[in-house]
Amino acid sequence: MATGGASGVTREQLIQGLQEDIAREYKAIIQYIIFSQKLDGARYMEIAQILEGHAHEELNHAIAVAKQLDYFGAYPVHEPKPVIVSEDNDEMLWADLAAEDETVANYRERIIQAQALGEFALAEILQEIIKEEQDHQIELAAALGVVADPRERVGQGPSTTGAR
Fold first, then answer.
1. pLDDT band at 57 (very low <50, low <70, confident <90, very high)
2. Residue 54 CB-density burial (10 A; 0-12 exposed, 13-18 middle, 19+ buried)
3. Which of 42, 84, 114, 123 is the most exposed place for a label (fewest CB within 10 A)?
4. How far apart (Å, rounded) are the C-alpha atoms in residues 53 and 135?
5. Angle, CA of 93, 96 and 97, to the nearest 5°
6. Mean pLDDT, to the nearest integer, of 91-115?
7. Helix (H, G, I), strand (E, B) or coil at 8
8. pTM
9. 70: pLDDT confidence band, cut at 50, 70 and 90?
10. If we measure between CA atoms, which residue out of 129, 100, 96 comes closest to residue 18?
11. Number of C-alpha atoms within 13 angstroms, CB side, residue 49?
12. HSE value, Cβ hemisphere, 13 Å, CA-based, for 108
């Protein structure tokens, strides 16, 4: 069992985290596809088009994470995290924003784990992914009229999607 020195993180923990990350990417792909087609009303047309682009980006993220899992000799999970659906436009956007908040927080943790284990190429790949995920946060927050950083968004939005 390889560990990351003083941090105590193991290679197995890193792999398990990557498995959860890819499951979150699957969830994001599904939600973005559904929501990009279900958002209705003139106010939501621009963000619907943006969400369609997010679906493609999330697929690229899933492929990148799958390649890293393959590098470690692990078979990627095939089940998404639970998908949230709604008929309400704002609820759809809040669900996506909450998912992005969770994803960014987890990728931050994964980058620290990768660096602790000396997996610098993985850390760089995840840094590229997190830049796009933060762009998603910014676009979703703008559509909702809130700040993108969840630490500054406390008390805004549905109670189930508060700052994570």
1. very high
2. buried
3. 42
4. 12
5. 85
6. 97
7. coil
8. 0.91
9. very high
10. 129
11. 5
12. 7
